[in-house]
Amino acid sequence: MKKILLIDPSLTRPKDMDAEKLRIGVVPPLGLAYIAGVMEKEGHEVKIVDCIAEGIGDKPEYSEDGIKYGLSDEAVKKIIKDFSPDVVGVSCLFSNKSLDAHNTCRLVKECNPEIPTVMGGVHVTVTPGETLEDENVDFVVLGEGEYTFRDLVTALEQETDFSKIDGLGFKKNGKNHINPKTKFIENLDELPFPARHLLKMEIYSKAQSPHSMDLKKTPYTTMLSSRGCIAGCTYCCLKYMSGRKFRTRSAENVIKEIKHLVTKYNINEIHFEDDNLTLDKERALKIFEGIKKLGINFNIPSGSALYAMDEEIIEKMKESGAHTISFAVESGNQKVLSRFMHKPVVLSKVKPLVDKAKQVGLKVKGFFIIGYPGETKENIQETIDFARKLKFDWSHFFIAFPHYGTELRALCESKGYLRNIDDYDIRKSFYTTSIETPEFTPEYLRKVQELANLDLNFRNNPNLLEGNLERVIEDFKSVIKLYPHLEIAHFYLGVAYEKKGLLKNAKKEWQKVLELNPNYTEAKEMLKKYD
Predict the structure, then answer these.
(1) pLDDT 10s digit of each residue in the chain, 531 long?
(2) What is the separation of C-alpha 60 from the centre of its chain, rounded to a whole number of angstroms?
(3) Which strand (E) or helix (H) includes residue 463?
(4) Which alpha helices (H) appear in 22-145, and where do they start and end?
(5) Of the candidates 75, 68, 95, which has an alpha carbon nearest to the alpha carbon of residue 7?
(6) Angle, helices 487-500/521-530, rounded to nearest 10 degrees
(7) 0.90 exceeded by the pTM?
């Protein structure tokens, strides 16, 4: 059991969700890199294959099932055959990649049926029994996987009993057995740094497509400085992955890793993937001071916890090299937040923090969720109005989705709110919903979402209205870089150029709009105005 292959699968999307409509994020698979670091420390030879990143330059593969982005099945099988692993671990972080993860296990068994396959990730953690129903999946790992995977491989290598390993699911005598996850790593400093030397690091910076659209400098990479979340949000299942107890790496350990990244990979920007980077304020300030001394940028793309934020932290973030901060507000109605979402956010405290962040020069983004069971159409409008009042640089509106394992899903199932759930395409999770209540339908929510994003981010973008033209031009350009076909982004970039007095640039953008859509009336009118 010396050779370990870890695979982050390719991504297959339905044809109505191609890369032109929804971009392909290219982000280092930190979970696999941490497992690889532990296994190398144990003396194993490890190979990581990030199928999306390594196949980013390949043409998408079209089939009746959809559009596959990343390495083809044949390319993956060749890697498996050439490396000839003793064990294969397959990541299934979220449900939208579950079909691809299962397909990867199938490819392993086609190469050699004797190779043990292990699946892990959030989706697997909340659906272990269903995952094991696949004949091509031998084991599942629940929650953080470093030590569970290590102990499993050791047991397989030594041919000893693995049935009592914490957080392990397996098959025995034709039945599935699931050992619940009860142990989490208390001292995160004891973990080796992620094995980034096994990743093709240059791909991520070249692609410039992190899961946020905010990237100032390259090369960049992601980091995780803490695990666990004390909040009990009913729409989130990450608590099953890393627990409710907040666990941290020491500031010294984090800074040591950043120095390593700067020295070895010439990293100029860090994206912290923490859920609660600033919950331990003293530790956070030490990390920021260390970053400041290194002179690099950083970002917290997943959203900062508002209940763990104050004005001093915001000031120190900006002083230390942060360029963007994202606030997970979720709703503009306190009842929806507290009673339905169980989100520990006090709305009266939000605007002062947003104003402070804007005052010090940070780009400020807001995250919102609409379509929660119990929510009314009036509540949804309150959320949109609240977002408008906050004047974020960019507002993201998401539709509530009943992810496996969440209290939200249990509620929807008990109320009969899941419409045609057996026919729902799981690849669309995160992007469309199946929730239908007496108050709203999925179609209604989709329309409201599109109008809110259009209105707050383009037509009535606060920076466009208030004359902060450098910021809004930068934002529109970022959108166009990701979605060059998006006519509305070109149109309002033209409007921003017009306000700045750059008429040549403005007309160029409006002409581009008409190339994309010859019937775009407003672009015709603007060009006629200046002709």
Answers:
(1) 699 999 999 999 988 888 777 778 899 999 999 999 999 999 999 999 999 999 998 999 998 889 999 999 999 999 999 999 999 999 999 899 999 999 999 999 999 999 999 999 999 999 999 999 999 999 999 999 999 999 999 999 999 999 999 999 999 988 999 999 999 999 999 999 999 999 999 999 888 877 777 888 999 999 999 999 999 899 998 888 999 899 999 999 999 999 999 999 999 999 999 988 999 999 999 999 999 999 999 998 887 889 999 999 999 999 999 999 999 999 999 999 999 999 999 999 999 999 999 999 999 999 999 999 999 999 999 999 999 999 999 999 999 999 999 999 999 999 999 988 777 888 888 778 889 999 999 999 999 999 999 999 999 999 999 999 999 999 999 999 888 999 999 999 999 999 999 999 999 999 999 999 999 999 999 999 998
(2) 22
(3) helix 462-466
(4) 30-41, 51-54, 73-83, 98-111, 122-126, 128-132
(5) 75
(6) 30
(7) yes
Beta strands, E only, 114-241: 117-120, 139-141, 168-172, 175-178, 220-223, 226-227
Q: Are 272 and 224 in contact (CB under 8 A)?
A: yes
Helices (H) and strands (E) in the chain, counts: 22, 18
Token pair 């409008």: residue: 381
Kindly give, in sequence order, each residue whose CB lies less than 8 Å from that of residue 24, ignoring residues fewer than 6 positions away.
11, 52, 56, 69, 209
The domains found in the chain, sorted by start residue, are 3-178 (3.40.50.280), 208-389 (3.20.20.70), 461-531 (1.25.40.10)
Kindly state the helix (H) or strand (E) to which residue 378 belongs, with its residue range.
helix 377-390
Sign of torsion over alpha carbons 411, 414, 418, 419 = negative
Instruction: Give 67's strand partners.
Output: 13, 62
309 within 8 A of 353, measured Cβ to Cβ: yes
Q: What is the rounded distance in angstroms from the CA atom of residue 405 to the CA atom of residue 392? A: 32
Strand 297-304, strand 322-330: pairing: parallel
The two structure tokens encoding residue 178 = 């699931």
Closest CA to 97 of 430, 442, 434, 419: 430
Asked if residue 219 has a cis previous peptide bond (ω within 30° of 0), the answer is yes
Amino acid residing at 304 = S
| Pair 375, 340: CB distance under 8 Å | yes
Please say whether the beta carbons of 364 and 405 come within 8 A.
no
Q: How many alpha carbons fall within 13 Å on the CB side of residue 237?
A: 23
Give the 3-state secondary structure of residue 118. Answer: strand
Instruction: Name the β-bridge partners of 62.
Output: 67
Q: Which two three-digit tokens encode residue 228?
A: 């666990």
Structure tokens belonging to residue 147: 């030590």
Give the integer Cα–Cα distance in Å for 491 and 225.
Answer: 40
Quickly list H helices, 112-208.
Answer: 122-126, 128-132, 146-158, 201-207
The candidate with the shortest Cα–Cα distance to 59, out of 14, 10, 7, 104, is 10
Nearest to 330 by CA among 346, 314, 310, 317: 346
